[in-house]
Design brief:
With 164 residues, the chain is of the alpha+beta class. The chain has one domain. It is built from 4 helices and 6 strands, in the order H-H-E-E-E-H-E-H-E-E. Strands 1, 2, 3, 4, 5 and 6 form a 6-stranded mixed beta sheet that branches. The longest helix is centred in the N-terminal third of the chain and has 16 residues. It is elongated and about 105 Å long. It starts with a helix and ends with a strand.
Length: 164
């Protein structure tokens, strides 16, 4: 039972290390092979623009000499801006235009099993003899947990400046 719990915990931790932008990123351009692109410099931060109209804002960026190198689109818990920056740095995007909108709340019910040990000590007399007895019982107790997750449609468009 404990092995199963450890495996589940490790899987959860590994999945937590990969954010939605990273997991759902789709590259459109191989930035290493494409000449004339101004990639994000080491240690620099990308320009972030939160958008209410992604199509219009991406079109505006293109008119200013930016090209789309990839995008990420998914539904899930709201990702942090730090995760967005992390993915932009990984693909060397100089600008990211992103949007998010609430979709629903998901109720998740899980059951954890907690180990329980109980020890019973009894003593007394049986006739003219004394006795003492110790017994230990081991088992598990189910502990239900209910949590709610707010989900959002999230989309990010990753861009770089073109020298052309």
């Amino acid at each position: 039972m404990r092995k199963l719990f450890v495996i589940a915990a490790i899987t959860l931790l590994l999945n937590a290390c990969v954010n939605g932008f990273q997991q759902n990123y789709q590259a459109f351009v191989n930035t290493q092979a494409a000449p004339g692109l101004v990639l994000l410099a080491e240690g620099a931060l990308p320009i972030l623009t939160k958008s209410d109209d992604l199509k219009q804002d991406v079109s505006m960026a293109k008119s200013q000499g930016y090209i789309v190198i990839g995008e990420a689109s998914f539904n899930g818990e709201l990702e942090s801006v730090d995760n967005l920056i992390s993915q932009a740095k990984a693909v060397k995007a100089t600008m990211v235009i992103y949007s998010s909108s609430y979709t629903d709340t998901q109720t998740i019910s899980t059951t954890s099993y907690v180990p329980v040990d109980s020890t019973t000590v009894s003593s007394g007399r049986y006739g003219d003899k004394k006795y003492s007895e110790v017994s230990t019982t081991s088992g598990v107790v189910p502990v239900p947990t209910i949590s709610q997750v707010r989900n959002f449609d999230q989309r990010a468009v990753f861009l770089v400046k073109s020298r052309k």
